[in-house]
Design brief:
alpha/beta; Rossmann fold; 5 helices; 45% helix
């Protein structure tokens, strides 16, 4: 029995996120799989101002939904399917680990390396370092020097 492949991409404002999303979209199209996108935002702590916290969280959720909506067309154009979309609140690393633990249908986490000389990026550093043992799916890292055409031709 063939298991459908589902490729998780973490949504953020980095330019390398588009490389990861492109790779996941092309790979999902060629394998008849799905792109899964996860947007996380941090908990807000306004302690005495619960109503302000609620408003701020609502604004963050609306921002997440807007960002996801903008990326849906990008994914659809490359994969010919709409992505599966999720939003979680909390520490980004914990959200990713919890999401993977609760959603066994995800078969691969796709991240793209930063072109910055300061390192590969915070998620890659975390999942190849301190949190590597918490990750229960394969991690695919897209090199920062690949062009769109090179990514498209990997499969």
């Amino acid at each position: 029995m063939n298991k459908k492949l589902n490729f998780l991409v973490i949504i953020d404002d980095s330019k390398e996120m588009f490389q990861a999303l492109r790779y996941a979209s092309i790979r999902s199209r060629r394998s008849n799989g799905n792109v899964v996108i996860l947007y996380t935002f941090n908990n807000l702590e306004f302690s005495h101002w619960k109503s302000v916290e609620n408003i701020a969280e609502l604004e963050l959720k609306e921002e997440a939904e807007q960002k996801i909506k903008e990326l849906e067309d990008f994914v659809f154009e490359l994969s010919l399917k709409k992505p599966l979309k999720y939003i979680m609140k909390g520490d980004r690393i914990d959200c990713i680990i919890n999401f993977l633990d609760e959603n066994k249908f995800v078969s691969n986490l796709i991240l793209a390396a930063s072109a910055s000389s300061s390192g590969p990026g915070p998620l890659i550093s975390e999942f190849t370092g301190k949190s590597r043992l918490r990750l229960k799916v394969p991690l695919t890292i897209i090199p920062s020097n690949l062009t769109e055409e090179q990514i498209d031709n990997l499969f």
